[in-house]
């Protein structure tokens, strides 16, 4: 199973050094303040791929204010 975590850009180097991290090139938010990191096993604060899809599908169907 794959796990994901959104971290601040200042924490990216630390997360990339974790043995569970499989990300080689983080995906950053449009403003560069956050990045999505992928892991091979569950880490504190991570979510599954399925949960991420559920969240993004819900956000896509919710109109913006």
Give an overview in words.
- It is a single chain.
- The chain is an alpha+beta fold and 65 residues long.
- It is 28% helix and 25% strand.
- The protein has 2 helices and 4 strands.
Task: Sum up the structure in keywords.
65 residues, single chain, alpha+beta, 2 helices, 4-stranded antiparallel β-sheet
Strand order of the largest sheet: 2-3-1-4
**So what's the oligomer here?**
single chain
Count of runs of 4 or more consecutive helical residues: 2
CA-to-CA gap between the ends? 35 Å
Q: What are the low-pLDDT stretches, counting only 5+ consecutive residues below 50?
A: none
Calculate the mean pLDDT score and round it. 87
C-alpha Rg (nearest Å): 13 Å
Order of helices and strands: EHEEEH
Helix content: 25-40%
Structural class: alpha+beta
Number of strands: 4
Gross morphology is globular
Q: Tell me the major beta sheet.
A: 4 strands, antiparallel
Secondary structure: elements and pairs:
Layout: E1 3-8, H1 12-16, E2 27-28, E3 34-39, E4 47-48, H2 49-61
Antiparallel strand pairs: 1-3, 1-4, 2-3
Q: Brief description of this entry?
A:
This protein has 65 residues and is an alpha+beta fold. The protein has helices spanning 12-16, 49-61, and strands at residues 3-8, 27-28, 34-39, 47-48.
């Amino acid at each position: 199973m794959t796990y994901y975590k959104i971290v601040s850009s200042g924490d990216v180097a630390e997360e990339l050094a974790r043995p569970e991290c499989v990300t080689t090139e983080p995906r950053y938010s449009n403003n560069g303040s956050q990045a999505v990191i992928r892991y091979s096993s569950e880490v504190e604060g991570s979510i599954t791929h399925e949960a991420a899809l559920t969240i993004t599908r819900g956000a896509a169907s919710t109109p913006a204010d």
